[in-house]
Design brief:
With 176 residues, this protein is an alpha+beta fold. 20% of the residues lie in helices and 38% in strands. The chain contains five helices and eleven strands. The strands form two sheets. Strands 3, 4, 5, 6, 7, 8, 9, 10 and 11 form a nine-stranded mixed β-sheet that branches. It has a two-stranded antiparallel sheet with strand order 1-2. A hairpin with a 5-residue loop joins strand 8 and strand 9. The longest helix is centred in the C-terminal third of the chain and has 12 residues. The termini are far apart.
Amino acid sequence: EMAGGFQSLAGRLLVSHPSQRDEHFHASVVLIHSHDRADGARSDLNRPYGRTLGQAQPRPLGTPLDRLPLHFGGPVSADQLAFGGWRFAARGPAARRYGISREEAETLAGDPAFRLFGFVGYAGWDAGQLENELRLNAWITCPFDRVCARLEGEAFWKALLVKHRPDLRLAADSPE
């Protein structure tokens, strides 16, 4: 919806520009959950911890959530865990869910069509802040499609960057 020039990015991906130096966002992909003019934006990063929820707990829960992959969601509320994910139908965009209850997450963990994640923390922007970063070319926006949804971490970042900004391939391949 375009309201006086404002366009919500909810459901889209942000791919960090190769020159992005913020340690939280360098070489990362962000899925925007909510974005509006008044409240800003809220999202999660696709950055795997390489551990499951069961491995991260003092003792396993004894439910399917023990096998849930954990992702670094962002630097805000880094002591909180949120469940989220998506399901692609035969065609069309992904049905995205975020802030799923533990009970529902346990059910969805058994659904092979639903990609469920545990996000530790989240990324947030105040009103106007994300728009300003976009004007400064800190991010490349792109659609969230099924081609990308299987990749993770830096491979995901690089694949999206090269697809949507082939002119940045060299910058993406160069060492720090």
